[in-house]
Amino acid sequence: MFARLSFIALTVVAAISVCQGFAIISTRDLPANCARNYTVSSGDTCDAISAAQDSSTFQLALANKATIDPLCDNLFPGEVICLGLTGQDCTTVYEVVSGDSCATIAQGADIQVATLLANNRNVDNACDNIYPDEVLCVASDIIPYSS
Asked: What own/partner pairs with CB < 8 Å and gap ≥ 24 does 67-75 have?
């Protein structure tokens, strides 16, 4: 009987330790100037979050550069992430589809390609690194992103 109670007590202590550890990991500090945030759900990806929350893929990466890795493969349910920074929060976005080019995206948004590139610093000048489901900022004004 004593052995069974000891086992149950150890199991409860272990479960509490795991839960407390999870809480510490899942509540990463948001940037002080975070304008909006989102709580990650199971199965979320950076591109899916960006599309659903009107935040460009670049902006999401920039706002969370201290917590989200470049491949965005370290998200977990319950984690709170920043969607955009105050004064640097583009909410006018476009989700790339197969066959898109910077020229067609810019034309559809009625902006210059230079503006598209300035607002999406992850896109190279040749625009050959965009991919389907990537979310781009298509605001008509240049967003003053800081590095």
From this structure: 67/28, 72/45, 72/46, 72/47, 75/40, 75/44, 75/45, 75/46
CA angle 145, 52, 34 (to 5 degrees): 35
Dist CA 128 CA 110 (whole Å): 20
Query: Residues with Cβ < 8 Å from 49, sequence gap 6 or more?
Result: 38, 40, 55, 60, 81, 83
Cβ density class 40-68: b for 16+ within 10 Å, e for less: beeebebbebbbebbbbbbbbbbbbeebb
> pLDDT (tens digit, 9 = 90+) per residue, 39-53?
999 999 999 999 999
| Structural element, H or E, at residue 58 | helix 57-63
Does the pLDDT value for residue 9 go beyond 60? Answer: no
Mind listing the pLDDT tens digit for each residue in 76-108? 999 999 999 999 999 999 999 999 999 999 999
- Provide CB contacts within 8 A for 16, sequence distance 6+: none
Q: How far apart are CA 50 and CA 44, in angstroms?
A: 10
